[in-house]
Amino acid sequence: MEEGVRRASIEVDGVRLAIEATGNPLRAGEGAWITTTLRNTGRDTLRWMTDGCAIHVGAHGEMPFRWAKGFLQAGVAKTYKNWAYVANLPAPESPIWLSAVPERFVGKATFGCADLGVPHELAPSREVRQRHHWDGQAAPDLGLPPNGPAEWIGTFQTWWRQADPGAEFAENPRDPLLVRLPAGIVGGRDPGMLSAGQAIDVAVTVPALRALLEANPSIQDWDMPITTRFDHPRALWQIGLKTNDGFSVLVQIEPLTAAVVRVVQDPFPAP
Fold first, then answer.
1. In what order do the strands lie in the sheet with 248-253?
2. What confidence tens digit (pLDDT) does each residue in 147-174 have?
């Protein structure tokens, strides 16, 4: 990572792809904008497909670190923790992920993209720019990322040129293109803070949550999704379960000391 370098680009087969950050390094906990630019430098029309959100060049960040998984649990605690990794948390072997939300979706609690193919095209010498906002957190809802190197990645896929064989029917899309911007993260989490997996290890020792799990050992009895997230405003891990019959337990954990700050039972607070 070369400090101060905020832009990277590639050019392949008449496609120039660029990604730019508002700063380098970026500060954890502070919002930043990531801008992608797609330019047609070829002689014929550039074509591609997106889903309903029309994100032309996807943008996200990755760090070359892994979250600590914690202990191997047994019984229903193992079921709970395993399900958290299936439904809520990145796989233990995955790099730490930094999400960037397209500008028009910033401030929306949730959004979805229609699962359909929307065609787009770009004439020679024209370009498309989009901004994506990083909220300064590690995704999904995992609190501050650590300090260290990162890489912002722009991805352009399902594309072809008008002159390609079968272009009229999008029969042979080209390989995805990736542009990478080495960057740094500063002001990140204390390395002694619990990861999500470690916070789950603490929570399943709490008698109230343990009893609820043992009384409802099947995930079919659970009201999804289960709660395994870092509450940034309160600086606490929130680990909890609500069952289909309305019983619930939420354990709030201080991330540096692993102390259980509060146990909230029915009613279950909204996320």
1. 227-231, 236-242, 248-253, 260-265
2. 999 999 999 999 999 988 876 766 788 9
What's the token pair of residue 5? 């370098």
Q: Please list, residue by residue across 46-64, b when 16 or more beta carbons sit within 10 angstroms of its beta carbon and e when fewer do.
A: bbbebeeeebbbbbbbbbe
Contact 28, 185 (CB under 8 A): yes
Written as six digits, the tokens of 216 are: 């409802």
Q: Give, in degrees to the nearest 5, the angle at Cα 128 between 123 and 132.
A: 160
pTM listed for this prediction? 0.89
Residue position matching structure tokens 């970026």: 26
pLDDT digits (tens, 9 = 90+) for 110-151: 777 777 889 999 999 999 999 999 999 999 999 999 999 999
Indicate the SS3 state at residue 195: coil
